[in-house]
Amino acid sequence: MSTSVIFPAQPEQILKGLGKLWTSLAQEEKQQGKPTVLRACAMTLIVATDDPDGGYAASQTISELMREHPSRGIVIAVSPEAEHGLEARVLAQCWKPFGKAQQICCEQIEIIARPENWPNVGPTLIGIVAADLPVVFWCRHNAALSPLASRKQKAGLEAVMSLATKTIVDSKGEDAELRLDLLSTWRKLGRTVADLEWTRLTPWREPIANIFDNPCREIKFSSFRKVEIAHGGEKPGALALYAAGWLSAPHQADVSFTQAQGKDDGLHRITLRSDSEQIDFERTGDCMILRSTNGRSRRYTYKEASVDALMTEELSVVGPDAAFDSAFARAQELLND
Amino acid sequence: MSVLAQPLPEVNPLQDPLRFERRVPPCTIVIFGASGDLSKRKLLPALYRLFYERRIPPNFAVVGSSRTPMSDDQFRDRMKDSVAKFLEDAPFDEDIWTSFAQSLYYVPGDLNKPSSYDDVRNKLDQIEKDHQTGGNVLFYLSTQPSYYAEAVLALGEHRLNRGNGWRRVIIEKPFGHDLNSARKLNDEIHKVFDESEVYRIDHYLGKETVQNILAFRFGNGIFEPLWNRRYIDHVQITAAESIGVEGRGGYYQEAGALRDMIQNHLSQVMATIAMEPPTVFDADNVRDERAKLLRAVRVTKPEDVPKYAVAGQYGAAKIGGQDVPGFRQEPSVDPKAQTDTYAAVTFFIDNWRWADVPFYIRTGKRMPKRVTDIAIQFQAPPLGLFKQETKSGLREVRPNLLVLRIQPEEGISLRFLSKSPGSGMRVRPVSMDFNYGSSFGERTPTAYETLLLDAMAGDPTLYTRQDMVEASWQIVQPILDVWAHTTFTFPNYPAGTWGPKESDEMLARQGHVWRIP
Ligand SMILES: NC(=O)c1ccc[n+]([C@@H]2O[C@H](COP(=O)([O-])OP(=O)(O)OC[C@H]3O[C@@H](n4cnc5c(N)ncnc54)[C@H](OP(=O)(O)O)[C@@H]3O)[C@@H](O)[C@H]2O)c1
Q: How high is the ipTM of this complex?
């Protein structure tokens, strides 16, 4: 369900387009004589992307996310192939929950901008975010995030971020030092920032945390004063740094990084050492193995989370994220040491 | 005097409730009455779903027990069909079932025979080794209520109430059939289990929308200041079913609507609506406030029962062109049954917040539709400045109505007056709606999923405590006593209607009318 292209992408035109869209859905409903469509919106989710696919992947992810997080989705595709400077179209993403007769529909706005118009996107967005609801910005505009970004690209990014309650980036494959610096600058400005590399750590964090939940465990977490992180690639990436930050923040444990030879980028092993026990967490293929020198060993299935799954998790944390805050601060300290 | 300080247990700084699901410890759930209706329709589908969502640990096990002879595999096959059929709002996954079914066992046995408990114990010992459950066991009594005390005492005699891990028992409704039997049952259970190990289920408290009442009241700042006798005129709680007794006529004939719904579910809903805010949101504080509220409900004097309570029974009718039998024509129902298939009661809560505010509760079978909701009727503005237009032409005397919809179409709506378009200052009631489905993901857990997980995790917040059960029996007991000695002229409402006219009259005496939900 989509309406025709709106050009130029003016807030009022877009809102009119949305109005028309809902009127047409309501007419369908009238013909059927019963309520068939439920309009759903709990936040505005803005995705800016300069992927060469013109925002296709981002749109797909948004439609997946709608089921758990109904929102007004706004995809901004920045592409040199855009026909006009800034154009928009509106559509509804609908799905029928299992066993229900009524469809749930969320509205989606697609804005296509030529790179030179990226700085003008902010003023359009101000008028079209859903009133009084959180605004989450997922930035996939790599050129604007790059240390080489032009002033205009940065200004465009700043304009969108200023509307957002939370900004999400993905530091996978990025130079961790530069990326953490950037995030740190944003955080100092009071922005709430999330990184999908931190979200990728959840499948590691949960079983590790659970080990120390056992009230019968003799050696408590505070006794593990050494943390060793084995990572792929030459330098530890953001994932490895966050893992180190998370585990060493509570008691300022010593951290060392080692390179897992011949392995892909990312996190491969976490080792915790106390005076009398060593716990290893190792990822091999699609399983994660826990081994402890006290004889315990356990195997967990491990599946690389899809971006959809990572975003679903991240969108459910709208307020402050204390665990990330402390892990991030400590990761920065480790970088500076 | 010297005080020896106990070292505090180390708090795990790695836990992150924002991201990780609460972890429940490994355990075995023993279901007595495993071949019954509740197991098939609710318990196994809930456990399967929890397993599907990885909310229960891999080293858990379920032991079903009842008299029907079955092997483990026969039990698994039977449960598979039921789960596939009764799973609510979720698809059935063959592979996940296969791994779930590996943890299902069956022990045939008669609750009257001591050997059955020995068999259960042997199975538990085996499972403790094979599944490393740490000896944690949750017993679920899903049998006829007449077995509750007997089964619990036998668990004690066979020392199944103690073991390497924790032992807990879930008791289904009804908890007693009157105040005395409830007290007696509590006494018997306490011979074997400590109150902290007893989980009396009231599945209404496990419903997401009932839990949301607390979030709505105490998570927002704008409603609580109005939540009292100064601003609220009255409250109506409705739990209507469109179906009849559906083959459960024999059971229902003994219970009736007042016992089946108001004594337990709806009085707990009333307590949730009317209780004071707890100081902390934990099991003890929340349950203290619920119990305190129930103790403040005025106990109706026998001579006032006809004024404040109405019994009804449906008669035959034609609905949608089809003949629908009356209650007395239902299978295994006495043709002269005096059972209430409809009950409406006016309660007053004698505390500072609620003095003189009527709480009307009604419930019935064969009503025009299935709906459970709570309507908070606010008082009228001091002056009616504007002319009102309504569809029916009737003036809304009290325009502000807040409706909390428990099922179906879970949500909240607020009615208020708004100016009609056009010249002149005419106003019309409009409604502002919040619908659960439109703000949250696709699926909310069923009440049994929530409650089973809570019991495994040792969180009794949503379970009823001894004092709550006894207080809720206390408020319905005088009505039951008077009705037991009354010969009603039943049927007094046709199937498919909103109940007997006496119920409308009960409200009319206070200047109120039942809403049409
Ligand atoms: N169904 C519901 O939706 C629902 C809702 C709320 C509460 N409840 C409560 O839940 C409980 C169970 O209800 P239900 O509908 O499942 O009842 P049900 O269908 O009658 O099942 C009773 C179960 O108890 C077993 N049983 C009966 N006598 C036994 C004995 N001497 N020894 C061992 N097992 C025996 C029966 O199996 P065998 O014949 O094979 O022994 C059967 O598995 C009741 O207390 C009811 O009030 C039910």
A: 0.84
